[in-house]
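Record pair follows.
FIRST:
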Amino acid sequence: MYSFINKQLILNFPDKITNPHILEFQMSEWSFFLLVLSTVMIAAGGYIINDYFDVNIDRINKPGNMVIDKGIKRRAAMAAHMIMTTVAVIIAILVSYKLGLTRYGLIFVCSSIGLWFYNTEFKKQFLIGNVLIALFVGLVPFIVGLYELNLAANRYDVLAKAPFFVNFQKILSFITGFSVLAFLINLAREVIKDIEDMDGDEAYGCRTIPITLGLSAAKNFILFLLGVVIVMIGYIMKDQFSAGATLSFWYLLLLLEVPLLVCGYFVFKAIDPSEYKTPDLISKVIMFTGIGYTLVIYFSFIQ
């Protein structure tokens, strides 16, 4: 088992407690792996079914990048989606049951059902499809944190009370903040993709933000989301700087704040939908470096 050391969250332990500043992770590495595997499989199944239903739209938007109907038959794609999603949900339910958190298995069931309806119903509707897919992305870090935090809170319940003060609520707030940032960044990227795909989406009756409200409104919405994320990360940077967390501060500044500002600049300057390829690429980099921040957390607080 790993050890979790964070002096900001664990205070005032009496000398009689052995290893007073140490909390052990409650999930085994195997359970953690299976939960992550289940999440990845559901996401992969979602991508497959997305390509399945977008065959006609993709013929207009990206004819050179199509996989289904060119490399993989539609029937095989549907079978792959069904098998992958079913296996993923079964794994998640079994792990949840083993950990005594059976009700949380419903999150994976709802996610797989939601991805199906996203592609069949909500994707073509105004805003709801964007919000739904961004919500699923935001849930990824939240789910694993929710499992671990509930297990830890149950085991260390006495430590949450005076005079020990393990602030589980603060840990949950941190995980929630990470998930909210993932949600906002992905929502901005979804709207950027909608602008890039306007021609095909309009031809097949999609009611995306740029089609319904216009390119200018969609641009302003993206800039608003990026602005909110920049302010949120700026607040975190201020907190990290005050706490002397140098590695965290510079990582957030150079690998998140600066790319966000650059992305916003290209969105602001863009006029034609074809000019949104660069912001799309930068947003992918931001999402990758956002995931990479978990390594900073590990080496700063857990090692």
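SECOND:
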Amino acid sequence: MVAASGDTVQFKICWSNYSSASALSFVITDAVPRGTTYVPDTATNHLCGATIPVTFDLAYSTATSSTPPAAFTTTAGSPLGAARWLRWTVKSVGIHTTGCACFKISVD
């Protein structure tokens, strides 16, 4: 896919638990690509396509480092447009559950 300046692109990072036990907690971390701007959205839109309801915490960082920073600012709402890193902490998922962490960016 090729995106031009001003385009909005949605990213999905999908996961699945096909084991015979529930997953008690896991973390997904992803960078907002350079040359783009994070598009804040409602917090309920940050997990999409889950086969059952899933609880999670969303945190963000405005650091521009090439590796995820150790410290993240936790937010109850949507991250700032200046977010450079996003981190989802998924609390618990049952067996045979799938879903995706989702976010949108605008190409500068």
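COMMENT: Residues 9 and 105 are 5 Å apart (CA to CA).
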